[in-house]
């Protein structure tokens, strides 16, 4: 949904849901997923109002490549989206493929940004985005991606340099796309625990280096002047701030936002929840409930706060081993554990005594919504990202139950944004609220 604010004329806020909760392999599957999940939510939130409804598209590499090379297929998708009043303002180009299958784990970081396949995939997504999203006007299209590689794969700075070179080549492609009449695409790098940039600070530091390397690539490989190269980098390279990831690393919301907007645009804010377990030594049942969430699909990086020190493991099976070994006392002495397990943003707690980091997500959303001058773009892209419905306790959620869950999450985000003064064009703050306080 597109939202506006009386105190911020000329600024837009787009809200949507990331569709990486599915991994479509064909155009027909993508349209079926949208029909099953998005359209019921659009109807519930917009009713008969002829409003544009934002969506965050996820195109696995094979589908992105097929669409980028099939103008007729892309035109059909564009016509479908237009007919359904759907605006794909943001794209997720992080998982290359197989994202909803067992065994993703570290492999979600392959290809790295040093690999040609990552560059090709990202530019395929950008080409499709340009064909699908003319409605953004003077705004931008955001494309989120990982920061380079998985952290354990780094043996020296050469991989980081090669990743930055790959980013430079991607920025050249995005600039050429815009020069041919396409939208401004912002490639938004996402800090993720245990990645090559695992915190907002690490990502901000890496981007200082990456921007210099990318500008050099634009000069030496694409013949751009230094001024033009730096302008391309400033226009097309930004950050994706994920509230779950910031919470797992115990980042203060204002610090995370400051670092994400340090020197470049905030391409996207992903509103997402992590799991939290305060006082683990006092709550053995909650510890058992967390360990029971270990599953074979995704990484569940877990961090413990022990005074000023942060304890870190890569996944829940490693946490189990730590609790059975010499590190047990230190982990149990921690004030709180936080686990990278995306859970619905409307939930403050889960069964088994587990809490969530909803307060961090709510605070980040409020801070970003209150300060448009920090965005670095005319519009703020807000994307709810709970891709774990298939592995949440209670079994896979599909159909009407999944659509209802997505609706609850978007209503929660709309409520928070309504408090901050953001509402659909033509609605007053009061009209934008349904009985019980939820926005329509």
Quick gist of this model?
This protein has helices at residues 27-46, 61-68, 71-83, 116-132, 157-179, 200-222, 226-236, 243-248, 253-260, 284-291, 316-323, 328-332, 358-370, 399-419; strands at 2-3, 12-17, 53-58, 86-92, 140-145, 184-190, 237-242, 266-271, 273-278, 302-306, 309-313, 336-343, 349-350, 354-356, 379-384. With 440 residues, the chain is α/β, with parallel strands linked by helices. The relative contact order is 0.13.
How would you characterize the overall build of this protein?
The protein is α/β, with parallel strands linked by helices and 440 residues long. The protein has a single domain, classed as TIM Barrel (Alpha-Beta Barrel), CATH 3.20.20. It is 42% helix and 18% strand. It is built from 14 helices and 15 strands. The chain has a nine-stranded mixed sheet. The chain has a six-stranded antiparallel sheet with strand order 11-10-12-9-14-13. β1 and β2 (12-17) form a beta hairpin. α2 (61-68) crosses α4 (116-132) and α5 (157-179) packs across α6. The termini are close together.
Supply database-style keywords:
440 residues; alpha/beta; TIM Barrel; nine-stranded mixed sheet; six-stranded antiparallel sheet; 14 helices; 15 strands; disordered C terminus
Secondary structure elements and pairings:
Blueprint: E1 2-3, E2 12-17, H1 27-46, E3 53-58, H2 61-68, H3 71-83, E4 86-92, H4 116-132, E5 140-145, H5 157-179, E6 184-190, H6 200-222, H7 226-236, E7 237-242, H8 243-248, H9 253-260, E8 266-271, E9 273-278, H10 284-291, E10 302-306, E11 309-313, H11 316-323, H12 328-332, E12 336-343, E13 349-350, E14 354-356, H13 358-370, E15 379-384, H14 399-419
Parallel strand pairs: 2-15, 3-4, 4-5, 5-6, 6-7, 7-8, 8-15
Antiparallel strand pairs: 1-2, 9-12, 9-14, 10-11, 10-12, 13-14
